[in-house]
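User: I've been trying to design a sequence by hand for this structure and keep getting stuck. Would you show me what you'd pick, starting by listing the structure so we're on the same page?

Assistant: Good idea, let's start from the same input. This is the structure you sent:
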């Protein structure tokens, strides 16, 4: 995995993380100016985890395909954030919790100002959302596996109703790893 438990300037862009089984996640980001964009996390106990109390200032988590091993959390913010770009346009599948966010808001930018989730697709998560940030207006909760053959490493979208067909026409998919 990729780890930055400190501050400032860690970006994971267009990387592949496979079989990460540690509690910190396949991608562990610290505080400010950190982001994860266009990554493929496969068979991970935890996908992307952000620590600290002001993480991802002016950044976000976008265009990631995060597939779990049936345990852990897909995307987790462990503390309050000041975020200008939220969790959006991610595919999160096969976790106990899909997206976990803080249960209390911050002082200088209280929830929901400039924060939240939107245009994500969640599949096979025991609990889709925990914390203040719940489903965005354009989030999709998939009822079928969206991938062609994930057991063989094919994360392209299938044409199954409630799965890949539910999100295959979205304009942002061309930037998501595994699509096409």
């Amino acid at each position: 995995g990729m780890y930055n438990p400190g501050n400032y300037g860690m970006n994971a862009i267009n990387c592949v993380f496979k079989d990460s089984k540690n509690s910190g996640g396949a991608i562990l980001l610290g505080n400010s100016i950190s982001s994860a964009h266009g990554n493929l996390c496969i068979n991970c106990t935890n996908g992307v985890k952000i620590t600290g109390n002001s993480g991802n200032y002016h950044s976000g988590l976008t265009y990631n395909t995060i597939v779990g091993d049936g345990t852990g959390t897909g995307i987790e913010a462990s503390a309050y954030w000041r975020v200008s770009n939220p969790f959006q346009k991610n595919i999160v599948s096969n976790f106990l919790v899909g997206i976990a966010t803080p249960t209390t808001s911050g002082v200088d930018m209280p929830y929901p100002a400039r924060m939240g989730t939107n245009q994500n697709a969640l599949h096979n998560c025991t609990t889709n959302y925990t914390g203040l940030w719940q489903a965005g207006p354009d989030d999709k909760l998939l009822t079928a596996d969206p991938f062609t053959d994930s057991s063989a490493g094919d994360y392209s979208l299938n044409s199954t109703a409630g799965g890949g067909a539910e999100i295959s026409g979205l304009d942002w998919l061309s930037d998501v790893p595994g699509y096409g």
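That's my pick for every position. To get oriented when you compare it with your attempt: The longest helix spans residues 164-167. Residues 107-114 have pLDDT under 50 and may be disordered.
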